[in-house]
């Protein structure tokens, strides 16, 4: 296997994911939903890359393409030096063993008819990594790892609280000892008091097991806390990527500035003096996105050139990438 360059675990190049729209009896194609519209980024080993943006911007679709739950329309996904975007299903199984996923909904992502122990042990059975007493011991160890008592292994999901269910989801994601974990909004369905516990658990597991995270979320405060770098998405495209501290202290793209202005500050005086950026209009449809820069119809800095050509994602210094001709 070729050694990955630049310490990158994942390199996404020109990834495109279009979902066809069909009509009529013969399912004739009449258009596309441009969920992910040619994006490129990388995830380094042992780092957490935060992927943020409004609902419907393509964050989850990007994560599912990396896992190959969706077959990308075009582009490449280099995972540890191998392009997995075109791998056949039979060869994907070995690659999937090295990836885990934590889903958004701790209620819907667990089979209500299975016991918690069976749910966590399923990946080990599928990949033939354990059976019998060895399987039971490994599941018990996974329960301890995520802060659950192994005596709860025989309970079914409805007997657990929301936070405990998400811990079961984390245990299942870690069952096959993956290197990469896709965290698809893992805390957005939980109470605020539980969110901090799950975030702390994820950070402890990363330090202990040397994990790499792609952390998908729309809560910018949480992303700032957990991420090393942050990528900002809007309508299927990446608008800005940089170091977490740099993004929050020196946002360059108008969309990033608008997102950050919506984060409440726990200081009444500062909250009164700061200026909120309220975006005009609605998010355009991914079926018919605007020409040029997708953000230009809602941008206060837009000039006629913004609607002519797609702005490239360029480095403006110190690894700070931004897709805006006005920066």
Describe the overall structure.
- It is built from ten helices and twelve strands.
- With 327 residues, it is α/β, with parallel strands linked by helices.
- The chain has a domain at 5-38 and 45-98 and 178-229 and 241-247: P-loop containing nucleotide triphosphate hydrolases (Rossmann fold, 3-Layer(aba) Sandwich), CATH 3.40.50.300.
- The strands form two sheets. The protein has an eight-stranded mixed sheet with strand order 6-7-8-3-9-10-12-11, with helices on both faces. Strands 2-1-4-5 form a four-stranded antiparallel sheet.
- Helix 4 packs across helix 5 and helix 5 (162-174) runs parallel beside helix 6 (192-209).
- The longest helix is centred in the middle third of the chain and has 18 residues, at 192-209.
- The two termini are 40 Å apart.
Short description:
The chain is α/β, with parallel strands linked by helices.
List the helices and strands and how they pair.
Layout: E1 8-23, E2 28-44, E3 48-52, H1 59-66, E4 74-79, E5 82-83, H2 89-96, E6 99-102, H3 116-126, H4 132-145, H5 162-174, E7 180-184, H6 192-209, E8 212-217, H7 220-226, E9 229-234, E10 237-243, H8 244-249, H9 254-261, H10 268-273, E11 314-315, E12 321-322
């Amino acid at each position: 296997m070729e050694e990955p360059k630049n310490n990158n675990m994942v390199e996404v190049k020109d990834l495109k994911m279009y979902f066809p729209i069909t009509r009529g009896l013969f399912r004739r194609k009449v258009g596309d939903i441009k969920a992910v519209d040619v994006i490129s980024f990388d995830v380094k080993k042992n780092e957490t890359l935060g992927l943020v943006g409004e609902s419907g911007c393509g964050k989850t679709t990007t994560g599912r393409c990396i896992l190959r739950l969706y077959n990308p329309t075009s582009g490449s996904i280099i995972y540890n030096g191998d392009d997995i975007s075109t791998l056949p299903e039979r060869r994907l199984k070995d690659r999937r063993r090295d990836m885990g996923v934590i889903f958004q909904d701790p209620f819907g992502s667990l089979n209500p008819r299975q016991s918690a122990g069976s749910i966590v042990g399923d990946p080990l059975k599928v990949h033939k990594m354990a059976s019998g007493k060895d399987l039971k011991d490994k599941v018990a160890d996974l329960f301890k790892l995520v802060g659950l008592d192994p005596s709860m292994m025989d309970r079914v999901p409805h007997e657990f609280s929301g936070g405990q269910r998400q811990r079961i989801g984390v245990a299942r994601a870690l069952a096959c000892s993956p290197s990469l974990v896709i965290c698809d909004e893992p805390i957005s369905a939980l109470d605020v008091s539980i969110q901090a516990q799950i975030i702390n658990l994820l950070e402890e597991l990363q330090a202990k097991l040397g994990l790499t995270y792609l952390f998908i979320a729309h809560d910018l405060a949480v992303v700032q806390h957990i991420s090393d770098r942050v990528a900002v998405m809007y309508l299927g495209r990446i608008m800005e990527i940089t170091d977490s501290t740099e993004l929050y202290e020196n946002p360059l793209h108008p969309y990033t500035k608008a997102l950050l202005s919506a984060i409440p500050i726990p200081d009444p005086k500062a909250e009164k003096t700061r200026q909120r950026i309220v975006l005009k209009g609605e998010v355009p449809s991914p079926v018919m996105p605007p020409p040029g820069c997708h953000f230009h119809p809602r941008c206060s800095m837009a000039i006629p050139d913004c609607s002519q050509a797609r702005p490239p994602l360029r480095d403006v210094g110190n690894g700070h990438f931004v897709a805006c001709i006005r920066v």
